[in-house]
Specification:
This protein is mainly alpha-helical. It has 2 domains: 102 residues, RNA polymerase sigma factor, region 2, helix turn helix motif (Rna Polymerase Sigma Factor, Chain: A), CATH 1.10.1740; 82 residues, Winged helix-like DNA-binding domain superfamily/Winged helix DNA-binding domain (Arc Repressor Mutant, subunit A), CATH 1.10.10. The protein is built from 8 helices and no strands. The termini are far apart.
Amino acid sequence: MKHEERQLLARHCAGDPDAFGALVACYRAPIYGYLVRRGVEREVRDDLFQEIFLRIHRAAASYREDAPLHPWLFTIVANTVRSHYRKIRVRRLVFAEASPTQRELASTEPDGREVALARETAARIEAGLARLPETQREAVLLCCVEKLSHAEVGRILGVPAGTVRTRLARGRAGLARLLAKQRSESETCE
C-alpha cells in the first residue's frame, strides 16, 4: 500500500481530482489518532485535521516521490500540532487565561469485564502520556504508535536519531513509572 499512497500524492499533483480524497481517506485514522493522543481538544480536532491536509496540499509539489510518504506526512502533522500548541500558549500569556484543558475519554458502555479492563488501561496510558514532557510524548507517539524509525522521527522533530532514542527511552521509563504509580494507588483504594 505504501507505493500506492505515494502515487496518490503524485496523481494529485498531476491534477487527478480523486487522488487527494483517497489520500485523506488513507490517513484519516492515523492522523486523528495522533491528534487524540497528543491531547488536541475534541472541538478543535476537525479544524486542525483540515489545516493539516491544507498544508499537505500546499506542500505536495515539494514531496520527493522516492522518499517514504508516511514520515513526510507526519512531519507536517507534528509541526501543525506544535504550532497549534504554541498559539495556545501565546494566547494564554497574552490574555492571561489559566483554564486547564480537559481531556475527553471514550464513554461507551462496556460489554464485558475484558472490555472494561482494556478501557481502564487505555485511559491510564492516555493519562500517563499526557503527563510526559512534550518532547518525550512526541517521540513515544511517533516511534511506538506511528511506527516511524528513529531517523525518520529525528528528521520530523529536527533532532539527531540519538536524541530520539534518548527521548523515547525516557518517555517509556516515565510512562512505566506513572503507570506503576497509578496501579499501586488503585490497588490501595480497593
